[in-house]
């Protein structure tokens, strides 16, 4: 998830989210004045929610999400945008969604980048000989065939790098960024911008401390981007341990040799994967549930974002099997190329620009499917009140919390923040960034019971919103809302242009 | 620590320890009947212990253990037996111990094996192509230059392997051991014996799940050994994640290709590193404190056993600086080649066979120097009672617990179990085996305050035992004790012969 490091706009939104989000817990907001009729209507879904929960946590679907996900990642492993393997996995999903008798199963083309990792070696020559674990960040250029050998300069921050003495010292050096981890949203800027910031001062490569609160000599990849008129230098992740070691060595002469081979091939066609349960009354109106099917090329993308993608489509499969057809259409979308910069959702947004007014609520799970706690949302006040009523029904799985995050939720769906009301899965994901974008993102992180509960929550919330007599309120309180998302699109386009995402 | 996997005897002792050890906590055993004079004498060390603790946790030695350890591992990195790097690190220590004005600083020669890791690659070809992380276990032979390619057979236990259907199926296969982790002492048998057990059935290589309760795709090395009349096959560690993945794939055809290059060179001379504070009254009587200076070749051996070695000599350095000379001699020994099978201590035992009766108490820290909790010990009842009185004085650092482990304590010093009373550092080491024998064994695992407290405990306990008017009681209750350790030596010799340790 949250592969938005290369887009300042969204990083900023995330930061605002982190600062402003507020756990409301089980209490319905005092500002709520929902009609007693609406409250009664929501509560009338109690037996339906119980049926959904029971079928998934005790009934025929118990363990189903885990089993399908395990089969999937064991079959395909990692699913990097641009690879045939991702496309094969999408074909597999299209077949599987049809097997579960969902409606309107199809793929929607998206042009995606195709970057490939090759040989990667790092070696410290001074002050003592040792291997240094390195992992190229997405879109990184390689070194010459013979590698790069240079002295190392360690900085703790961009500010330190930009001080004149450091700035001059960086010329011809390999710059190590040994920042303190504050939060992913804050610290990821070193990963996304480190190489170009170092290159401005003449650095020949950037070694960026992995963005994580915990390390077992663990390398984390992720997106990064270059800028116009600045040389493109290799951008590599190193471990927290080695970043701190280099910091201790800073008083000595440090020499490192790197050999990194990467390839940037022609852009290829991937697909967003779509399946629906057509609404019985207002089929053109849509509640969208989602996760992304692509992953980085390390680990197998079981957590990021196999879990989110699989609870999304499996929620629909369960509802279909239970004969629960909502008034509005439920649409599952498994985004492609999220990791390279929300590529799939941007194409979806473009292709469906004229239909966005019919999408009444968007959901995405891309921050873990650990034990679910409730729902995080970005809506107006009235929308929040409705969601607070809905999650009360999730008491049987102890998932009744809500968090209001006006800065946006999800990763892909964050592009619709303040345009379409949205929700994401609140879950016990305190270890999420331990595993994120690493070889440790495997089925071992996933728990069958947590996945069951996540699917149950996902299915329940999506179904009720899609079935309520009242369409989900589109207002965002003080800020005027509009279906015309041209402003956002322009911001995105500017950002894309600035970061050369199109030239990946 | 605990590199005794290749010796059934000691593994068994560990197992017994795990089963029988009993946390006595802060209560002095009911069976104690120490004289009021002895109790008063022990309690009279209160001001001395306070002085030691204050000087280390608040005074001039604060942070000293961490600083010295950090300088050491940053200078030398890992310290594998047989390497010049280990010998250089021993020279450095001899200089350092002299700088701290300890007495009788010297090295004592030990012949050690010299095994070296080379190229290591693992690749799954079927059912899907993927890299497989592999790490040769100590003493492993390599593959032919062109590697080995074979089908995989997964077993959960030795019992399963030895069942006839599996046993026959293993022929020509790469055997994966996917055991459940029970405890290190129990589960390590798969690492130490897996290759030879698989080879008995004609396997061409053994892939052994890393022995750990927690994994982030983490590879753990460690010792293993071959047996006579069974082919020597490559013995490799794989991650918990991949072991479980292979288990899921067991119903399919799994093909793996391995290329492992290792070298077994001529045995070389290493050294146990010794320093003392000569006793003022009975200098021939010795309390020995220890840890091992060598490490595996992954990580930097900061935890295993940099911490244990450094609290041992630093405890003496502090006592020396404080002018605290005990009646008996305090001797720090930094063992060499512990990891290859307690090689250093065995040579010490041989060379000092005639003086062992003068060693009144042995201490070793080789299971972490996290926040200390107290002392684990293997003594008779009266010895335990004395230790329980002593640790009461450690209340200022909350380290007053004792655990009686009649099966033995420490790793090196376990060879003297039931021969010389011993103690090891009880500490909050629940994550010890997360990092053990991995690239993640770095300074980041170490905490300056925990090291300070560990040093303070170590210095206090050793000093009191060395200074008490009563020599530490050598009795082991029901089992007759003797200074003649010929029985144990014979058992060790048998074990060494059986495992061909001498032919490493």
Automatic annotation (TrEMBL), chains A, B:
Q: Name one GO biological process term.
A: peptide catabolic process
Endpoints of the signal sequence: 1-21
Quaternary organization: Homodimer. The monomeric form is inactive while the homodimer is active.
- Annotated GO MF terms: carboxypeptidase activity; metal ion binding; metallodipeptidase activity
Show the InterPro entries listed in the entry.
CPQ (IPR039866), Peptidase_M28 (IPR007484)
UniProt similarity note: Belongs to the peptidase M28 family.
Transmembrane as a keyword of this entry, yes or no, is: no
What keywords is this UniProt entry annotated with? Carboxypeptidase, Endoplasmic reticulum, Glycoprotein, Golgi apparatus, Hydrolase, Lysosome, Metal-binding, Metalloprotease, Protease, Secreted, Signal, Zinc, Zymogen
Q: Which domain of life is it from?
A: Eukaryota
Residues annotated as domain Peptidase M28: 272-461
Q: What is this protein called?
A: Carboxypeptidase Q
Instruction: State the compartments where it is located.
Output: Endoplasmic reticulum; Golgi apparatus; Lysosome; Secreted
Write one Pfam family the protein is assigned to: Peptidase_M28
- For whether the record's keyword set contains Nucleotide-binding, the answer is no
Q: What is its main location?
A: endoplasmic reticulum
Question: Can you cite an annotated GO cellular component?
Answer: Golgi apparatus
């Amino acid at each position: 998830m949250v592969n938005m490091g290369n887009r300042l706009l969204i990083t900023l939104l995330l930061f605002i989210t982190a600062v402003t989000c507020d756990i409301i817990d089980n209490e319905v907001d005092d500002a709520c004045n929902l009609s007693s009729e609406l409250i009664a209507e929501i509560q009338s879904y109690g037996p339906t929610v119980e049926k959904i929960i029971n079928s998934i946590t005790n009934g025929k679907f118990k363990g189903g999400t885990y089993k399908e996900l395990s089969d999937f990642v064991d079959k395909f492993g990692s699913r990097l945008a641009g690879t045939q393997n991702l496309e094969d996995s999408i074909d597999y999903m299209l077949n599987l969604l049809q097997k579960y008798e969902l409606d309107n199963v199809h793929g929607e083309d998206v042009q995606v980048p195709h970057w490939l990792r090759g040989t990667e070696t790092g070696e410290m020559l001074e002050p003592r000989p040792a291997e240094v674990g390195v992992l190229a960040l997405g879109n990184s250029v390689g070194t010459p065939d013979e590698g790069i050998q240079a002295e190392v300069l360690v900085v703790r921050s961009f500010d330190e790098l930009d001080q004149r003495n450091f700035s001059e010292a960086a010329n011809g050096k390999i710059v190590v960024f040994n920042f303190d981890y504050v939060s992913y949203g804050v610290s990821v800027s070193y990963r996304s911008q480190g190489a170009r910031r170092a290159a401005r001062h003449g650095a020949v490569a950037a070694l960026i401390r992995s963005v994580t609160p915990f390390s077992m000599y663990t390398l984390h990849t992720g997106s990064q981007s270059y800028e116009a008129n600045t040389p493109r230098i290799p951008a590599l992740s190193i471990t927290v341990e080695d970043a701190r070691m280099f910091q201790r060595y800073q008083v000595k002469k440090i020499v490192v040799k790197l050999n990194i081979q990467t390839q940037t091939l022609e852009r290829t066609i991937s697909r967003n994967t779509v399946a629906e349960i057509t609404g019985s009354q207002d089929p053109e109106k849509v509640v969208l549930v989602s996760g992304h099917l692509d992953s980085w090329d390390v680990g197998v993308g079981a957590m990021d974002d196999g879990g989110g993608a699989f609870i999304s489509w499996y929620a629909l499969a369960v509802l279909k099997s239970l004969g629960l057809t909502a008034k509005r259409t439920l649409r599952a979308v498994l985004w492609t190329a999220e990791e390279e910069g929300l590529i799939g959702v941007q194409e979806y947004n473009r292709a469906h620009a004229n239909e966005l007014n019919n999408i009444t609520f968007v959901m995405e799970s891309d921050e873990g499917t650990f034990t679910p706690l409730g729902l995080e949302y970005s809506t107006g006040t009235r929308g929040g009140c409705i969601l607070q009523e809905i999650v009360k029904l999730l008491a049987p799985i102890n998932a009744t919390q809500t968090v209001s995050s006006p800065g946006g939720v999800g990763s892909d769906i964050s592009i619709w923040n303040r345009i379409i009301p949205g929700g994401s899965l609140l879950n016990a994901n305190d270890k999420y960034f331990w595993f994120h974008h690493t070889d440790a993102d495997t089925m071992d992180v996933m728990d069958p019971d947590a996945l069951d509960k996540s699917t149950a929550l996902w299915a329940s919330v999506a179904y009720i919103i899609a079935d309520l007599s009242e369409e989900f309120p589109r207002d965002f309180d003080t800020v005027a809302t509009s279906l015309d998302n041209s402003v956002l699109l322009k911001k995105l386009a500017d950002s894309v242009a600035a970061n050369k995402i199109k030239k990946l």
